[in-house]
Every structure is written in structure tokens, then in C-alpha cells.
């Protein structure tokens, strides 16, 4: 598969880049995508929820009424969950929501996500670029030149470029990441993928291991 290389003005440079069919042209595995997205969202959860149970509530341990003769049920402590202010039964405890997912399944999910976008013609290859200083207007000019100002975009760079990253940070629908940090959720969440020309070969090498 061949893709045209564009510059930041949205003009065709005349160059073509050949992308691997094993990364951008496979039959997508929707189940692998589902699992990887589920793992990503699970890992975003803090899991710090906690409520006090019977042993943790601060109350007197005095027996609140005699055992027999009251006509009611036995009650040994005000900490009991049946009383107001008592502990909670089976309350939430801190936990991790993540689960194990094999590396090969994760790689398959990313290849599937890239193939989905490629089949939808939602992948653009850009010439390498940078900015002299972090400036939101500079990145907005790039998006406007590509007619993507109101589109969810994900720019994939070969390595972190602070000027580009900081320039994009205040734009709600724009995200910048690197080849090492790209994930299936971001790939599927974006309406348009912008991949740096020099990032293509690194991305293919990582996903073909």
C-alpha cells in the first residue's frame, strides 16, 4: 500500500511511502481491539474506593441491650451493620481493575486498529516538522492547512518533540503521541491519524516483532 507524503501546508510533496500490509492491511480482529481497549480503560480507574466495615468503625463495644427478654433480636454492638452509623456489609475495597493481556494480542490489536483506519482512508503521512517554540497557533495552522481543525486527530511522532506536544495540548480534539506510547484506544478514538514519515518504519518494526 502506498501513501502520499504531505507537508504541514497540506500540499502533496510528490513523495510516496510504502506501508507494510502486515501492519496496515490485515483483516482486523475486532475482539483483540475490544480486549486492548477494555484493558486501557480498566487501567485508567484509580480503584481507591473504600468504606468502613464493622471492624473499622469507631464506636463503643458495649453491649447495647440485654440478650433476652426485650422481645427483639439480639444485638451485641452498635457497630453492627443493621444500625445507623454501623459498618457497611461487603463494602468496596481498594483494588486493581487491570488484567493480563498477552503482548501478541496487544500487537494484533494495534495492527488491527491501524488497518481499520487505513481501510477507511483515515491515515495521512506528514513530512517531519517542528516548531521554534511552543505555540498553539502554530499547530492550529497545521490542522487548518489539512482541513482537520474540527476533527479528532492523533499525531504519531518517532520521538517526543516538546514544542509540537505543548503546541497541541490546549486543542480539545488534537492529541500528539510517540511510537512507543501509541495505544489501541487512541488509534480508534481518533477520526484521523497523522503519522510522521520517519515514524512509519519504527512503528512497523515494533508491531512485526
Keywords:
single chain; 209 residues; alpha/beta; Ribosomal Protein L4, Chain: A; 2 domains; 6-stranded mixed β-sheet; 7 helices; elongated
Describe the structure.
Forms part of the polypeptide exit tunnel. This is Large ribosomal subunit protein uL4. GO terms for molecular function: rRNA binding; structural constituent of ribosome. The chain is of the alpha/beta class. It contains seven helices and six strands. It is elongated.
The CATH topology of the largest domain is given as: Ribosomal Protein L4, Chain: A
Distance between the termini: 20 Å
Measured on Cα atoms, how large is the radius of gyration? 27 Å
Beta strands, count:
6
CATH superfamily of the largest domain: Ribosomal protein L4/L1
Shape: elongated
| Overall CATH architecture of the largest domain | 3-Layer(aba) Sandwich
Helical amount among residues, as a percent range? 25-40%
Q: Output the helix-strand order.
A: EEHHHEHEHEHEH
Total domain units: 2
> Beta-strand percentage?
5-15%
